[in-house]
Amino acid sequence: MARRGENIRKRKDGRWEARYKKGRNADGSIQYGYVYGRRYAEAKQKRNDALSLIKDKDDTPRCSTPDSTFDDLFNEWKTEVRSTIKESSFCFYETMLEQHLRPYFGIWRIDQLTAEVAQNFICLKLEQNLSPTYIRSIITLFQNILKSAQSKYQYAIQVPTFHLPKTPKKMPEIFTAREWKHLEMYLKTQNSEFAFGILICMYTGMRIGELSGLRWEDYDPINVQFKIRRTVYRLKNTAYAPNCGMPKTILCIGSPKTATSVRDIPLPFGLLNEIQKHQKSPKTFVLTGTEQCMEPRNIQKKYKKLLAQSGLRYLNFHSLRHSFATLSIQNGSDYRTVAELLGHSSVNTTLNIYVHSGIDQKRHCLDMLIN
């Protein structure tokens, strides 16, 4: 009897047969391998051993040449960058590489790349309804891989000029000053760790992953500030293989997004009563009051429900960060201070992405004109 979902079955001759993906044929179809055992556990172990050998082979560095295939170049690039970038960044790049670049370019030789071939790739991705922003990210990664090989081996690789799809500029929505005050008052009536965490987020501008990873050991009662030292995120499990019994994703607690994201954020003295009401032992997480963190996707779900209960319109969680920056600037804070509170390395990032004119500010501008 087959074990459901594992591609392991018992044959008529009494042996167990385990099937696994061995590779791909020239036409892109899957090539399967088979192993056998007298018992189910033996067949499963042999299958896992075979998958490990395939993974080790794929990770073996190769020295690419102009007549190598892009498969060789992609494998080499992955091996080189793995130890030089954050795991979250690597997983993001790997997804684009394995789901989009390799299936299209993998069997092509490097010296066969033309502008037409590359542009057809973009057309294909547009037909698949990928967003222009994501397509641009894929192309940027592809160009960086080509330039890296060009620089390393000093041979000519044609890095085509792509005609990229236009990215529609969508201005993020922010809460008005009235909505902001309404949300603050509602949160203070809830008397829960989660409501307190959202309140902290409103007046610090911290990211959702930083809020998720915030512990009471990060609170400095003398200076009334929180230290941002970690972030929580969910990643693709790179050790995952089909039917291996492992989860596809894993929850990680790691260092903040960038070096400037490691920062100390002072809290408004107006929140001291709330802090004293909710403060717990050092190892507990602020958002849950336990030693178990709440992962970002669950924070988003609870936050959406909280907004509905408060009677406010729904704006995504990141809008709290946008609103914090915009309202701070409107209330007279200087750009450098807001940039440091947000953990930005450049003031330009704060100005170009996080600061927007709200409806109240625009109305004030018109009122001044008419008066």
Brief synopsis:
The chain contains 14 helices and 8 strands.
Explain how this protein is built.
By secondary structure, the protein is mainly alpha-helical. Helices cover 48% and strands 11% of the residues. It has helices at 40-58, 70-81, 87-105, 115-127, 132-153, 177-190, 193-202, 208-212, 272-278, 296-310, 318-330, 335-342, 347-354, 359-370, and strands spanning 8-10, 16-24, 30-37, 219-220, 225-228, 231-236, 249-254, 263-266. The mean pLDDT is 83.
Backbone CA Rg: 26 Å
Count of helical regions: 14
Percent helix = 40-55%
Could you give the order of the helices and strands? EEEHHHHHHHHEEEEEHHHHHH
Widest β-sheet, arrangement of strands: 1-2-3
The percentage of residues in β strands lies in 5-15%
What number is the mean pLDDT?
83
pLDDT < 50 stretches: none
Separation of termini? 84 Å
Shape: globular
Total strands: the figure is: 8
Structural class: mainly alpha
* Largest sheet report: 3 strands, antiparallel
